[in-house]
Design brief:
By secondary structure, the chain is an alpha/beta fold. It has helices at residues 21-33, 68-71, 87-96, 111-156, 160-173, 178-188; strands at 13-17, 37-41, 54-58, 78-82, 100-103.
Length: 199
């Protein structure tokens, strides 16, 4: 599945969480011009559970005491509107982890740039999370491979290099991964008897 370009915003869904009617009007007008679907929510209300692609939130209108992690559970990138630059407000904003921001008072320019940056940032975060998960899986499977190498060393009196080479050659011959074969070695207590080749 091809992922959408961050430059392509037409047809995406935006949630506006703002109170100031002038700013809501500016954001709504720009999002409509860009061809986006819009939902709105007052900052005092709990955000709706509908799926959106981006959230445009007036960070100044949400109480600092609210926990950003519990209020904003959506995976959608957040564009924060900032007007107050006090340390406590900026700390709360950093905890919100916005993908982009706009400085108030808003103008008609800048929203498209904020959207592109937000979509790109969200995609990079997603890619990085997937990469980290893949690396963590590899670390977990390395433990299994190491245990299987030790099992082969003890069971067959092989050196570490020879035991790993045997596992690698057997995995290649049976068209499986070293990690999968190692798990089978640990489950069987030795090299499993494979009479059929796996596809």
């Amino acid at each position: 599945m091809t992922r959408p370009s961050p430059f392509s915003v037409r047809g995406r869904r935006a949630l506006i969480v703002m109170r100031d009617e002038r700013e809501v009007l500016i954001v709504r007008r720009q999002l409509n011009r860009l061809g986006m679907t819009i939902a709105e929510c007052d900052p005092a209300e709990t955000p709706p559970h509908e799926t959106v692609d981006v959230i445009v939130v007036d960070a100044d209108s949400i109480p600092i005491k609210s926990d950003p992690a519990t209020v904003w559970k959506s995976n959608a990138p957040i564009i924060a509107l900032i007007g107050t630059e006090t340390p406590s407000r900026l700390k709360w904003l950093l905890d919100l982890k916005p993908a982009s921001f706009l400085v108030k008072p808003l103008r008609s320019a800048g929203l498209y740039t904020a959207l592109v940056v937000a979509f790109d940032c969200a995609q990079r975060r997603s890619d990085e999370a997937a990469h980290i998960e893949k690396l963590e899986d590899r670390i977990r499977s390395r433990r299994v491979v190491f245990a299987a190498v030790l099992q082969m060393m003890r069971g067959h009196g092989l050196s570490e290099t020879d035991a790993f080479a045997l596992i690698r050659q057997t995995a290649m011959r049976h068209r499986t991964t070293i990690e999968q074969l190692s798990a089978e070695i640990m489950a069987a207590g030795g090299m499993p008897n494979r009479t059929t080749r796996t596809a």
